[in-house]
Amino acid sequence: MRDAPFDLDRPADIASAATRAWHATYSSRFPAFLKCGHPSPERSLEKAGTPFPPESPTLGLSHLRFEAVLTAARLSGNVNDFALVAMLGLLGLRIFEACGANIGDLGEEHGHRVLRVRGKGGKVVLTPLPPAVQRAIERAVAGRPEGPILRTVRGTRMDRHAATRRLKRLAVDADVRLPRMHPHMLRHTFVTTMLDAGVDVRDVQIAARHADPRTTMRYDRARKNLDRHSNYILAAYMASGT
After folding, report:
1. Does pTM top 0.90 for this prediction?
2. Would you name the residues annotated as active-site residues?
3. Which sequence spans correspond to the domains of the chain?
4. Helices 183-196 and 63-75 meet at what angle, rounded to 10?
């Protein structure tokens, strides 16, 4: 027997469609909830809209390795290298944001040198430029009035693939041995280095432009770093009694 055609004017059809959509949504999400530490169906459904993000699989560079890559980039004969590493690792830009940045996006706001960044969904934000990043960008721009900030050796706009090749070369020059080196590793380094420096997680979230603070947290959790464990803070606070 053939099913009757779906009719938007028939309330029963609308209800059944909504029910099917509800079941499809929650049944597809359910395995992820179990992995996030919600063993019971009741708790899984309770958390349906906000499952905790998994740990980021990308590990950032350690402080010393990041310094080595920064130094190699600053000393490189390619003027784009220092700007590339600074924009990814010191500004925390995504690779498409860094490669898409133009000289016309540079400006001033309330006494600060800033870069107008076009992020996800076309959202535009103003990112302040610390002095080291300013120098790196000015070196790459080299007095040009317009065009992309980051360029290849052929003078064309740098893309993700060209950036990855430059970063691999810099890692070799810095004697940083990694299974693979790619642009997102420096954005991750931006987050983890800020957290290591003691910046509040809320401020890191704002700097990284994460919509959800749990996204920022998962970057930190992926480090498996015990150096800043709260046990040490408590022990230091109670040192006079121990």
Report:
1. no
2. 94, 120, 184, 187, 210, 219
3. 63-221
4. 130
